[in-house]
Amino acid sequence: MLIGGKLVQGESSFSVINPSSGSAFAKAPACSKAQLEDSVRAAKEAQPKWAALAKQEFSAIMKSAAQKLSQKVDAIAELLVKEQGKPLAAAKEEALIVCGLFMLQSKAESEYERVLADTPKERVIERRVPLGVVAVIAPWNYPLILAFGRVAECLGTRNTVVLKPSPYTPLSALLVAEIISDVFPPGVLNVVCGGDDVGEWLVEHEDVAKVCFTGSVKSGKAVQAASSSTLKRTTLELGGNDAAVVLEDADPQKAAEGVFAKAMRNSGQVCIAVKRAYVHASQYEAFVNHLTMMAKGAHVGDGFEKGVHFGPINNKMQLERVKELVEDAKAQGAKVHAGGEPLKRDGFFYPPTILTGISEGVRIVDEEQFGPVLPVMPFTDIKDAVQRVNDTTFGLGNSVWSTNPEKAAEVAAQLRSGTVWINSHGDLTPDIPFGGWGQSGVGRVQGSSTVESNTNAQVIRIPKVQSKL
Ligand code: NAD
Question: Bridge-partner residues for 118, per DSSP?
C-alpha cells in the first residue's frame, strides 16, 4: 500500500481471484485500523502544502504521473485482465485513460476566484477552497478509471486523497500507486486496501472531509448515513437501470448493433450499460433478430485470448446474481433467444443473453442486472414507453435511437435521468459533468462539476469606502 509516501505491507492479507479461472492468483495487503489512521494523518499533514504549491510545480507533478504511467501501460493492463477479467485491449484502453485523466488535471487552475458583485460600495468575490482530505472508494468494474478519475479531480482541486479500491480488484490500483509513489509529496496520495470495513473506517473518520463513492445503491446509502456523523460532503455514483428507446423511424440493424455494444460492453458490468430495451413494435422483430445474431456470434473467453469480445463476470457473487435473475425471468415465461446459462467451464463466464416475453414486474426488468443480459420489450405508443422508462427509482442514463436526432431529442427531454444519449449510450468524456438522479446518486463528477463538488465556497465582501469603525 502507499501510506505517507512509503510503500508498506499490510498487517494481514487476502486472496485475489482471477475470474477466468475462478482461482486465487495473488495476495493483496489488508489495511489495519492503525495503518488507516496513518494514511489519513499523512493526507491531513500534506494538504496545506499541496494546496499552496505553485501552479507550475503542481502541473509538472501531475504530468510526471501521466508520463510514468504511460510507460507502464502494458504491465498495468495485464494485471487488470488477471484480476478484473476484461479483454486485454479494453484493459489497455482503461490504463491509457488514466494517464489522460492526470494529464487533464495538470491544467487545473491553482486558484478559483470570481467576482459576484462590483458596485461603487463594494466588491464581492467568491473563492473556492479545497475541502481537505478526501476518501475515494471504488468498485471492481472499471477499477482504474473510477478510482483515479476521482483521485485526479480531488488532487486537481488541491485536496489530498486516501483511495480504497474494491477488494475484488485491488492490484492494478496498487501497481499504479507504486509507479507514481515518488512523484507526489509524501501523503498527498495514499492507497490502502481491504474489505468494506476499511471503507467504513474512512467514512467514519473525523479528519476525512469528503467521500467520493462509486458502487452499489445499498452501500451508497450506508455511506450517506455514516457520513452524517460528521456531516461530510459526499459524491455518490451509484447503480442504474438504463433504458434504450428505439423509435419507429430507427434503422433496426444499426440500432441493434449500437444497443448490443452498449449493453454488453465489459460483459454488461457498466453502471451506464443499456439494461432494458423498449423497441417500437414495427421494428421489434428485426431488432431482436439482429441482437440474437450478434449475441450468438460473440467470442466469450479469457481476456488474454486472441479475438475475445467479452471476458468473464468479475466475481462469483455477481455471477450468481445474474444466474438468479435469468432463472427468475425464465420461470416468469421469458423466451431466451441467445445465452441463458453460464458457460460450462472454469471461471465465471456468462454469455450475452437476449430475453423477450417479459415486462415490468419481472426482476430482470426492474432491477440492475450488472451482467450481459438484455430484456427487450415492444411498445406502440411513445407516451407509454416514456412512462415505463421513468417508472423506476434509478435515474442514471437513458438513450433514444432514431434516424431523426431532433425528434429523438424531444423524447430525450421527457426521460428522467442525469444523461440521455441519442444513437449511443454510456459515452463519457471527462470535460462533461456526469451523475445520477434519484437513487442513482448524489452530486456530479467531471467537467465544471469538479470544482463545485470538491471545494468549499468562500465569499469575501470588500468595501470600497473606508469604514469609520
Ligand atoms: P459495492 O457497493 O459493493 O462496493 C464498492 C466499494 O465500496 C468497494 O470498495 C467496497 O469495499 C466499498 N464499500 C462497500 N460497503 C461500504 C460501506 N458501508 N462503507 C464504505 N465503503 C463500502 O459495489 P460493487 O459491487 O463493487 O460495484 C458495482 C456497483 O457499482 C453497481 O451497482 C454499479 O452500477 C455501481 N457503479 C456505479 C457507477 C457510477 O458512476 N454511477 C460506476 C460503476 C459502478
Answer: 123
